[in-house]
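Customer escalation, tier 2.

The customer says the design service returned an amino acid string that "doesn't look like it belongs to this structure." They asked us to rerun it and document both sides in this ticket. The original structure tokens are below, unchanged.
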């Protein structure tokens, strides 16, 4: 393989990767970003509602209230030291983006516009907070373009449309870079780096009904599993309550923050039954379950009763055009409905992965040590949706995902600078560094009796049917058995087109390898967690069990092993938020 050498390597061109790359590039290190799409097409671009920070521009606000809401929103599975760090850093991270040029919407006094979002409160669970900073309903789009422009100015080097294959590690466990594949030419490449950061996003394309882009195939998670490292809390997937019915494309929580509300076929605002205080702005898992129950019990809308109405035509056309222009366009384009005149048909859609690659609050990937507590994997970092730091616990609050990207992207960049200073010279590359990747590529240079597309479709149907909003031991084990059969079929799959130039079929086959790993980690972890917590709802274990399960799960690919580790309940400086009943 051809070889390129850099000081630091970022895999993923979304918000998390670009924020970390910017931190490094501004310090005059040689930095590369590998992205399988042009960076401004990364999935961060689809984030709509905003980025949450206790600025207090509309109402009185404090980071301590944001901290409490995030702990409660995650159903006490989040690590409270990392949550405190994120909520404390939030205002400075937002102001930093503003100074970079992010075009936030403005209040009449010129300050950054903030809107209400689900699960956010004042005074530790009191009245609704107005905390989420927004650029209309295209906040992720604005953030991504801002960070990309700043990286261009800092002379970050981009490998656009390169697909990362595998991590490269030496015998002592140091990460030395990755192997990658040029989508344009089909040529493999070995990229060496003293520090490597994974920012590859989520794996939501494992589900049939998903708000995720086609590129969200869990590539970083597959790389970590193949390297023999574990994944954390993979049973926790957020099903956003308001995806366009039958399509999955997202209708932001900002619609409800601006005054929209949900109705069943009887015209009833049914959220009063499920969250009498917060109503339509309860935690996302609460609203998603409520919608699923309404549909299952026959109160869904439409000829098949398979969706709920999201009403916002009372907000006036001018307000919708000013604050929710992208949502109006999506609804007209994909639902055939103008929300200024009629309700949007919505249903829960697979949206966000709370689990992922375990890290500490510096972005270092951590793994269990043979003797003693977990230890960092030297030279390897992860941030964003592919990582599990864990600030989102069992259920992410809206607006905290963009915050996660920039806060921990910046933190990881800072720690990588220290690591590069402490490790000024590259380590020796093993002679067989690229052998595993070469074998994987060779495996997809032959025809087969099974088609990749058919297996991919069956995988998504399996996950949607057996590991969705509600779960049981029987349904999960049935899903795992079907996944075993799909993996057996995958061993006989091949490609009809084995050419190299822009062979997207080969990329899809490599993505399927990663999706299978994500699906297996999810099903096995969900079987082991015998309780209901946050987004993980077991009908056969309907109660939260803090005595047994106030712990993170760790899934390893070898023999489907599942271990656990304790949740960090001690914050950095304030008192711990003790577990209690989670009600809205």
């Amino acid at each position: 393989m051809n070889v390129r050498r850099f000081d630091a390597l970022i895999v993923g061109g979304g918000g998390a990767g670009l924020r970390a790359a910017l931190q490094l590039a501004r310090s005059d290190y040689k930095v590369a970003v590998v992205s399988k799409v042009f960076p401004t097409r990364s999935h961060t671009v689809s984030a709509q509602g905003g980025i949450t920070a206790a600025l207090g521009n509309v109402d009185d606000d404090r980071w301590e209230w944001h901290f409490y809401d995030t702990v409660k929103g995650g159903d006490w599975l989040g690590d409270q030291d990392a949550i405190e760090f994120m909520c404390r850093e939030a205002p400075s991270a937002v102001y930093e983006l503003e100074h970079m040029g992010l075009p936030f919407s403005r209040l009449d006094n010129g300050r950054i516009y903030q809107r209400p979002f689900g699960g956010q409160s004042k005074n530790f669970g009191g009245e609704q907070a107005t905390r989420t900073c927004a650029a209309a309903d295209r906040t992720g789009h604005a953030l991504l373009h801002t960070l990309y422009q700043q990286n261009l100015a800092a002379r970050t080097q981009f490998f656009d449309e390169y697909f990362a294959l595998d991590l490269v590690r030496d015998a002592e466990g140091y990460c030395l870079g990755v192997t990658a594949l040029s989508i344009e030419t089909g040529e493999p490449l070995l990229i060496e780096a003293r520090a490597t950061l994974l920012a590859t996003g989520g794996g939501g394309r494992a589900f049939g009904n998903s708000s995720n882009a086609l590129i969200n195939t869990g590539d970083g998670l597959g790389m970590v599993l193949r390297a023999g490292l574990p994944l954390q809390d993979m049973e926790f997937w957020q099903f956003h309550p308001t995806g366009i019915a039958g399509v999955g494309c997202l209708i932001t929580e900002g619609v409800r923050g601006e005054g929209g509300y949900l109705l069943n076929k009887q015209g009833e605002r049914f959220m009063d039954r499920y969250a009498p205080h917060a109503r339509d702005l309860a935690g996302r898992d609460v609203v998603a379950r409520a919608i699923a129950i309404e549909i299952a019990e026959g109160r869904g809308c439409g000829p098949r009763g398979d969706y709920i109405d999201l009403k916002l035509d009372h907000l006036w056309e001018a307000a919708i055009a000013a604050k929710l222009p992208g949502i109006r366009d999506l609804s007209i384009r994909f639902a055939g409905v103008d929300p200024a005149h009629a309700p949007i048909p919505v249903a829960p859609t697979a949206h966000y992965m709370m689990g992922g690659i375990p890290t500490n609050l510096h972005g270092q990937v951590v793994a269990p040590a043979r003797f003693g507590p977990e230890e960092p994997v030297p030279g390897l970092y992860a941030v964003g949706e592919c990582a599990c730091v864990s600030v989102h616990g069992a259920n992410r609050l809206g607006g905290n995902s963009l915050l996660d990207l920039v806060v921990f992207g910046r933190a990881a960049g800072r720690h990588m600078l220290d690591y590069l200073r402490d490790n000024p010279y590259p380590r020796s590359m093993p002679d067989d560094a690229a052998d595993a990747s070469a074998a994987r590529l060779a495996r997809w240079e032959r025809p087969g009796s099974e088609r990749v597309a058919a297996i991919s479709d069956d995988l998504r149907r399996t996950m949607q049917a057996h590991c969705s909003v509600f779960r049981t031991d029987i349904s999960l084990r049935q899903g795992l058995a079907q996944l075993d059969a799909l993996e057996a079929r995958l061993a006989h799959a091949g490609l009809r087109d084995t050419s190299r130039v822009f062979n997207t079929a080969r990329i899809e086959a490599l993505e399927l390898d990663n999706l299978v790993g994500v699906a297996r980690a999810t099903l096995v972890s969900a079987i082991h967690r015998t309780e209901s917590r946050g987004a993980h709802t077991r009908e056969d274990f309907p109660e939260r069990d803090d005595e047994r399960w106030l712990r993170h799960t760790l899934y390893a690919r070898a023999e489907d092993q599942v271990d656990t580790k304790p949740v960090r309940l001690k914050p950095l400086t304030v008192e711990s938020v003790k577990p209690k009943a989670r009600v809205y």
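Tier 2 assessment: The sequence is consistent with the input. The two ends are 56 Å apart (CA to CA). The mean pLDDT is 95. Sent an explanation to the customer and offered a walkthrough call.
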